[in-house]
Amino acid sequence: AGIGKCVALDLACRNARTILACRSRERGQAAVEEIRAATGNPAVLLRLLDTSSLASVRAFAQAVLQEEKRLDVLVNNAGLTGLPFAITPEGLEQTFATNHLGPFLLTNLLLG
C-alpha cells in the first residue's frame, strides 16, 4: 500500500521485472494482481519479507541472489511508527529492527 505500491506500479509501467517484498501474502498478492491488471506486465512477483526479522531478511536476500540474474534497483520502503514497545524473537526492538536494521542488512546482502 502507499508509496511502495506506487513505486512498484511505476516500475511495472516501465516494463520492469518487479518484485514486491511484503509481510502479508494476502495483501501482497492483491497488490501484485492489481499492478499486473493495470500495467499488463506479467513480470510482477510477490516474495515474502519481514524486515523486523533478520532471518527473514537473510532468506529473502538468498532467494533473490539465487533466482535473479541481476538487481538494478532496490527500494527500501518498509517502516513502522507509533506502535507500542515490542521485542522481536531475535531480541531486537521491533521498530528499530523494521526501520533500520532489516533494510541495512538487506542492502548489504544484495550488494555485489
UniProtKB/TrEMBL annotation:
Belongs to the short-chain dehydrogenases/reductases (SDR) family. The keyword Oxidoreductase applies. It comes from the Eukaryota. One of its GO terms (molecular function) is oxidoreductase activity. It holds the Pfam family adh_short. Transmembrane segments: none annotated. The keyword Oxidoreductase applies. This is RDH11 dehydrogenase. Keywords: Oxidoreductase. InterPro entries: NAD(P)-bd_dom_sf, SDR_fam.
